[in-house]
Amino acid sequence: MNQIIRNSISAAHRAAVATTVAACALFVSAASAEDYIIVPDQFVYCTTCHGVELQGNRSVDAPRLNGMEDWYLRNQLEAFRKGWRGTHPLDLTGMEMLPQATVLDPAGLTAAVEFATGVAPRTDRPTTVSGNIERGAQLYASCAACHGEKAEGNPRLNAPRLAGQSDWYLADTLEKYRLGIRGGSTGDTYGAQMRGAVSTLPDAAAVADVVAYINTLY
Q1: Fewest CB atoms within 10 A around its CB: which of 24, 42, 61, 119?
Q2: pLDDT for 41-85, tens place per residue?
Q3: Are residues 10 and 113 in the same domain?
Q4: Do the domain assignments include residue 98?
Q5: 29: phi > 0 → left, psi -120 to 50 → alpha, else beta; which?
Q6: What is the span of the domain harbouring residue 108?
């Protein structure tokens, strides 16, 4: 059954990517040199999912990368390379990213991080998750100890910025931690900590409430 689901999602993913590539081509052809980012040849494939300006693409479950901290992006690419992410049988979106990260050698990984973090977050971030903001504020109180009162992040605690990230991606990620799809690999210390923290969220509604509150901090 999982194989059938994976095949179905992969087909849908390929179709969505094809649509995204076509849209990117139209965007670039219509824009002036000042209107879009010049993408290094070796990272053009990143934009087919994450967008021309790495603003993310919900249709292919690709999160926003522009504005992400360099240390966090490096940590996540390393997590894929170490098999901490993208190897759980239910982490279908992680499986899509896994081969993209594992082909990077150390120099390539550094170059990828430098490219992604060098793209300024110029585009608006759409809000797609709704929930009970007041309840979300109460639930977020424990999150603030690491991620900050304004969800600004704290590199000393390896806690990334949450404000400004794609809200659907935050919700999906929290659900993966809540269901044990992420953060359960041996050696993934910070993932395990996050999994424990998310265990305080009893259901998907609580996840939506927290994310809805985080949306107010951006």
Answers
A1: 42
A2: 888 889 989 988 898 999 999 999 988 999 999 999 999 999 999
A3: yes
A4: yes
A5: alpha
A6: 2-117
